[in-house]
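DATA SHEET
Item: assembly model
Revision: 1
Owner: S.N.
Input lines:
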Amino acid sequence: MTHYRQRRRFVRCVQILTAVLFFGLWEATTRLHILDAFIFSSPSRVLATFIDMARDGTVFYHIGVTLYETLLSFVIVLILGTGIAVILWWNRKAAAICEPYLVVLNSLPKTALAPILIVWLGNNMKTIIVCAVSLAIFNTVIHLYTCFSETDGDKLLLIRTLGGGKKEILSKVILPGSIPSLISNMKANIGLCLVGVIIGEFLAANAGIGYLIIYGSQVFKLSWVIMSIVLLCFIAVGLYALIGLLEKIYQKRL
Amino acid sequence: MEPLLSVDHIDYAYHTLDGETKALDHLSFQVHFNEFLGIIGPSGCGKTTLLSLIFGLLTPEAGRIKIHKALSRNHKMPIGYMLQKDHLLEWRTVYQNVTLGLEINHQMTPGYIKPVEQMLRDYGLDAFKHVRPSQLSGGMRQRAALIRTLAMKPNLLLLDEPFSALDYQTRLNVAEDVYKILRRKHKSAILVTHDISEAISFCDRVIVLSGRPSRVKAQVPIRLSLEEKTPLKARSAKEFKDYFNQLWGELNG
């Protein structure tokens, strides 16, 4: 037990040390002009930029926009994906017809769609949302449909022996039984939606973290770019933790 | 007296891409009120298919299955079907599991709920009402599954090897419990099993089916010299061995 604790403490120490060393070296080399601070920025410059932008609130505005777009597309994927999977489960013929298209769309690099989306939908938030949704939706549909179809046949028989039909099979067995699978899918989706939103913001936005990165690199404000990337790390971890929390609440209820 | 259930010359075949396999061939038998009928046969002889036909999940290709008028009238679920495994849903509490059938049939009324609560008390599950099925023992799970079936007040129960998933000791105990519960409630039952001893100890009459396509090969009424028959006591009756040998002979003959 103490051995286990010691090992954990050691791992944690090395983890922290690695971060300190990384940022320390970065700061030192730029101060000593070994690295060009104009191109590589430096931790102190990034921090100063953050404080500066936090004071007038612009950084929170950009974070808010990105978060809003990510969560909105996430919810759309969740509802639309589940809905389509239910329809496909209900109608096997439709599922058989759609299967090759789903496979192709799922393996297509969705970033390739982004330029067309701008032309079709315009230079606005709609494009960003659709871009993020397109990134996650096909995988969600395939994943949930597979999960629905693989439900234990005896459980379906159980509902029929209790006098239920297809509707009851769906509401009493398929949907509640798929929640763990849905949650694991949500964990992947929240990350995918963030990727989709950033891609969308690169191309069609005047606000958001993606926009800050592109704008910063174009005007050579590398401190903006690096600050945005650090913020993205925090956002990604935060969103993932949010789904983790949902999972924990569900498991506790069980 | 008109039988509770009469199965009259039914045929059934499975259709696959390769053709059809005849499962049941002019099969006929009857079940009377308050009777426990055992059905044994070689594995794959269509015992489960037969229960599906009686319950109405499948339709026979020829012949008729008739339920006594008194049952089919004013009754949503005159027949209850108990599967091999309990299939309690893990995301529901024990209470939510035993009332699943009532929920599906929109029968969550005092007239149905009260007997369920009584059964939970009678069969030692009252204290476990609000826990998850995973916290129940194998025997308790099977009792919960039985309550779930009985909740809809069926008159005839179809038992599809309901004890086969349990270990031997639990199996004997659960069979004893189920037997007493069904007798007390004056139910009729069809027990499908591959266990000859179980059929003799549980049933009033045993039907032996032939291999595919199945016909009724023999009908053996079980009469044991006991004051009060229960599955456990039946095993020590002096006629038990003779019935076993007779049924064993029919199965293998």
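QC remark: The first helix of chain A runs from residue 2 to 31.
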